[in-house]
Design goal:
Blueprint: E1 2-6, H1 11-22, E2 26-31, E3 43-47, H2 53-65, E4 71-74
Parallel strand pairs: 1-2, 1-4, 2-3
Length: 75
């Protein structure tokens, strides 16, 4: 599954990102900051404020053009 994870740079988000990626999911993170992503970890990233509806809409449009997403986990 391709999963968009908001709050992905936070404490819970980073653990969940690793767990989902380890389980074979394609994880796309969304947060205000860019975390240190371990080398080789296939994680896409969008640095936006999830309270900005125009920015979130742009992320969904971008993801739709590149194959869409199957789920959203909103932290």
């Amino acid at each position: 599954m391709r999963i968009l994870l908001t709050g992905a740079a936070g404490s819970i988000g980073s653990v969940l990102t690793d767990g989902l990626a380890d389980a074979g999911h394609d994880v796309v993170g969304l947060d205000l900051v860019v975390p240190e992503i371990p080398p080789g970890r296939p994680v896409g990233w969008h640095t936006v404020d999830c309270t900005d509806p125009d920015a979130v809409e742009a992320v969904f449009a971008d993801l739709d053009r590149s194959g869409g997403i199957d789920a959203v986990v909103h932290l």
